Amino acid sequence: MLFNSFEFLVFLPLVFLGYWYVFDRSLRAQNLFIIAASYVFYGWWDPRYLILLFVSSFSDYLLALLIDRTDDPRRRKQGLLLSIVFNLGVLCTFKYFGFFVDSFAALLEAFGLRANPTSLKLLLPVGISFYTFQSLGYTIEVYRRDFKPVRDPLAYLAF
User: What are the φ and ψ backbone dihedral angles of 68, each rounded to 5 degrees?
Assistant: First the structure.
């Protein structure tokens, strides 16, 4: 759903009215509503990437809880490293996988080897850099003890 589409012109006022006037008595209901609206908005483009968004979100939610739970510096660093590797791995896979496959095939062909690469031709999910770095930033702030982790998964996902 593009911001300049008719669908968005209908979607935004419905979400606004629902959030402020229908679910205004309960923060939990508002959070559930905004999460559902966010997933509908994101999934409108390609529903397959909702799984990626969900896994990315919950991995950092759980890792931040794990990092906060321990005072062992080694375990805290392991949790942070796992978050960094996962997030940057996902980002690099979607942004650079095709580039590396094509570059490696060109290198092989430069040496006279026939390359017939099978590429995944991954389509870049909308906003992947934004939500990846937002999620990673949250984990880093919890690691630095600048921020206490959110215990409520609905509040975390609504953020």
Answer: -70, -30
